[in-house]
Amino acid sequence: MEKYICNTCGYIYDPVAGDPESGVEAGMPFGALPDDWVCPQCATQKADFEPEGGEDMPLPLAGE
Ligand SMILES: [Zn+2]
């Protein structure tokens, strides 16, 4: 499963570990997280995470 990184603070969501402090079980893929899940460090929304090292889903640049 793919890790996702927070664009704001650099927090990495690791599906293998999940996010127990937010009630997310270990083994939960990023795509299966609830829509209201946010970064546990900075409260950034899921939409502002990107796949760690992934090149297949580039995000639009600000200002476009
Ligand atoms: Zn964050």
What profile does the largest beta sheet have? 3 strands, antiparallel
What ligands are attached or bound here? zinc ion
Average pLDDT taken over every residue: 90
Distance between the termini: 31 Å
Return the string of H and E elements: EEE
Range of strand content: 5-15%
What coarse outline follows from CA principal-axis ratios? globular
Radius of gyration: 12 Å
Q: In DSSP terms, counting alpha (H) and pi (I) runs of 4 or more, how many helices?
A: 0
Strand segment count: 3
**Helix/strand structural class:** mainly beta
In order across it, which strands form the biggest sheet? 2-1-3
Structure description:
The radius of gyration is 12 Å and the shape is globular. The protein has 64 residues and is mostly beta strands. The chain has strands at residues 4-6, 12-13, 49-51. The protein has a 3-stranded antiparallel β-sheet, with no helix packed on it. It binds zinc ion (ZN).
